[in-house]
Amino acid sequence: MRYSIMLQLVTTISVIFVAGAALFAWIQNRQIEPIQEMGINHEFDRNLLIY
Q1: Is 49 exposed, middle or buried (0-12, 13-18, 19+ CB in 10 A)?
Q2: pLDDT exceeds cutoff 90 at 50
Q3: pLDDT for 22
Q4: Which residues have CB under 8 Å from 37's CB, separation 6+?
Q5: Distance between CA 8 and CA 14 in Å, rounded?
Q6: What is the distance between the alpha carbons of residues 15 and 9, in angstroms, rounded to a whole number?
Q7: From CA 7, how far away is CA 4, in angstroms rounded?
Q8: Residue 27 CB neighbours (<10 A)
Q9: How many Å apart are CA 48 and CA 34, to the nearest integer?
């Protein structure tokens, strides 16, 4: 009976670690797109960056 409980604990902790690692890897590798600003100032700022 004790072996069964220990096995369940090890399995649960392992699943939590693997899920955490997968979430961390996903966060690190996702592509973040820049936020598009609308308005007159956006065109002015873009022109400043070009020149």
Answers
A1: exposed
A2: no
A3: 97
A4: 45
A5: 10
A6: 10
A7: 5
A8: 8
A9: 17
pLDDT at 32: 79
The mean per-residue pLDDT over the stretch 22-43 comes to: 76
Residue carrying the six token digits 């065109």: 43
Residue for token pair 């592509």: 31
What single-letter DSSP state applies at residue 28?
H
C-alpha separations of 40 from 1, 24, 28, 45 in Å:
71, 38, 34, 9
What does residue 23 show for φ and ψ, rounded to 5 degrees?
Answer: -65, -45
Within 13 Å, how many C-alpha atoms sit on residue 39's CB side?
A: 5
SS3 36: coil
Dig out the tokens for 42 from the structure. 């956006």
